[in-house]
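Help wanted!
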Amino acid sequence: MTHAPQGWDRAALALRLFALDPKRFGGIWVRARHGPVRTVFRDYISQIVGPTVHLHPTMDDETLFGGTDFAATLAHGSLHKTQGVVRQGTVLQLTMAERATPGFAARLGGLLDAASHSIVLLDEGADGEELPPDNLCERVAFFVDLDGLSMRDIAQIDALTHTKLDRVQVPDDAVKTLTETAAGLGIWSLRPVFFALDAARGLAALQGAHCVTADHLATAASMTLAHRAAPLPDMAQNPEPQADDQPSDTQPSQPQDMSDVEHLIDATQAALPPGLLATLAQGRRKRSHAPSDGSGDKQAHNRRGRPKPSRQGRIVSGKRLDLVATLRAAAPWQKLRTKPDHAAVALRAEDIRIKRFENRSDRLLIFAVDASGSAAAARMAEAKGAVELLLAEAYARRDHVALVGFRKDGAEVLLPPTRSLVQTKKRLAALPGGGGTPLAAGLKAGLEQGLQARKRGLSPTLVLLTDGRANVALDGAGNRQQAAQDATQMAKAFAQAGLDSLVIDTSARKSTPLRALADDMHGIYLPLPFAGAQQISSAISHSLAG
Amino acid sequence: MTQPFPFSAIVGQEEMKLAVILTAIDASIGGVLVFGDRGTGKSTAVRALAALLPPITQVAGCPVNSAAPDDCPDWAEVSDTSLVQRPTPVVDLPLGVTEDRVVGALDIERALTRGEKSFEPGLLARANRGYLYIDEVNLLEDHVVDLLLDVAQSGENVIEREGLSIRHDAKFVLVGSGNPEEGELRPQLLDRFGLSVEVSSPTDIMERVEVIRRRDAYEREQAAFLKRWRAADTKLRKRIMGARLSLPQVRASDAALTHCATLCATLGADGLRGELTLLRAARALAAFEGLREVGFDQIKAVAPMALRHRLRRDPLDEAGSTTRVERVLEEMA
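Answered by r_m:
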């Protein structure tokens, strides 16, 4: 246990190791809320690693990688380019890393792969809900958690004396031990093992040792592998802190090294507060189905679709210059303007005209599925079947889908808008049944998803599958009357927001209150008492098409 | 620039390596898509490929790497028409790329400063006769994908914009890699890749240890490591060159063609591109193995990578496409 430094010591050690060879270690993932401790740590980063370039997740490509500087180009009459911020230094600092989109992360990932840059990810995410993109976490060696530390915990971090990483000898079996440790922790990517190996070298180098020892290996593993460990099977089901005696059957092979490897696994697991591992793992799972950039849910369609008249604007990444219109705008002023030498035309920034296009937005189907006991008893399987058929169709049409389930005392967004059919299907199949019917909560979650999606340029439609027996109010109380009232209110909010909706009655008999609810939503009501899944599906496509 | 990791030194990942080699033998197979988890060496393999490819002969000053002075496009105003040997171009298409950078655009500098209309070639021009590599291809912006689809299909880049009307050859092998977790690829683009490979981390501990050892050696003693593997790489390159030469002589019997057709029909692969790719890949493999005729063994070996991404996807079928291809192959054997 002594091999796993905690708290500030861990942070300090990670920083010093990182500073030894920033490009090889890729970076540090620092989980810290805004606060004095973070400020001190950031000061140490620039003190020990050197100057850094600050990045923000909303930076566009032009800011990152450079582009044409139009103001200067026009003023001087020769091409002037802006230098991208990533060229201003090799160590990047990404604030609010948890907000980075997969596309943004992929661009930075490319820089890390080229070994031209290294990155400090400052992650301010709320516990386990938001994490930096996986591909960046994967490419940085260290994880440091500063939450919960106070100014009292802070100690001086010494600057590095000149040390060479590559001089350190590594015993022959160390590679094997580390590989097995990673496998034992359920880490299948090979990158972390490189990090662990280099970290062990670094630790030896920091201590002035010439050879990596077992202690170095243990500490290195705890520094680089711990936060990547897959949740152990028993932990996944039971979110309580894991027990100290880990089942050893996760260790696949090679009995002769067992003691070594187990020792390392222990050390690794002791490295983090037990709850954190579970949170990270959970967050990772949540993250993995965040909508990706490639699915095209762009709001501003600047380059596709039907052309519209061009308009005055600024040339930024993603916009296209309408050259003819620009020249036309500049033409009347030519005599008045002084031209730069050799320039045929005197252009000013205000002449710039930008092409505009209009595009139809993608459709999003939000399925709100009633998984209450009553619905489950009636037609849960049928409803699931219908949703699956619809999903297949949505896939063919490249629609986005989102899934909201409601049961017991609330609703849960099982899947934010995505095009990944496999994910949706998995989530749907895993949706358990039972409990009351919090119809209002389900509607509310659906409404929130719909409004959010609309902001991002999608056209949402809600498909509500329920038997309409609302008996849980919005506040989670089991009050039938209140529940019905809340549901009606939410339905009216739907109508007000102008979202399309479709109510599918899955109860055994037609339900009048549900019909009224559909009317309140200004939606379509489909009573399908004993239709097969196929029929529901065709009915829905029919009414959507109309 | 640092030397890429030697191709021969890549441990395991046989299918990916084979796919890459086959496209190097016959470019008309049409590219490779590598999909797999993180940290499995996808990009390593593609970058290693560059070092493996034989050089091309091209006109020195030509922006589209033309083979003969007569092939140079008029707009390029090529002044230096001597022939030189250059390494096969492997062009990276970064994710944040603008449309102008991909297809080429009006040379803004000349337009603004001298009022001349001239064309500034883009990445597609540079990739002509070579490879175009897109990492994280599934995250590529849709509008860039549209452009690529068109060009990859026709082998010609047509620019009709901003008063320019220009066309030039853009015959390249498209190589893409990505992580399926981050989003799916549009079926239209999927179909443009000749071969598709799925990679995963090796599960065997000793194999994993070997990967780490080699990578570590590469990082620490690069010169010695590269030297150690140079012979193997050279041997492979020669074998590829030999296969290229003997490729036209490799025959495909009626029986082999029937095999291909039956396989595709049974699997319900859309269109005829599946059959063609399957046949070309099998022929390239036969050439690589020094055979004169395509046999069922070659078809069997390349069928999964040539067909798995072309199957009409039953979105609700849990069994992977690979399993389906293998199942049919077993029935046929």
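OP: Thanks! One thing I noticed: The CA atoms of residues 103 and 124 of chain B lie 6 Å apart.
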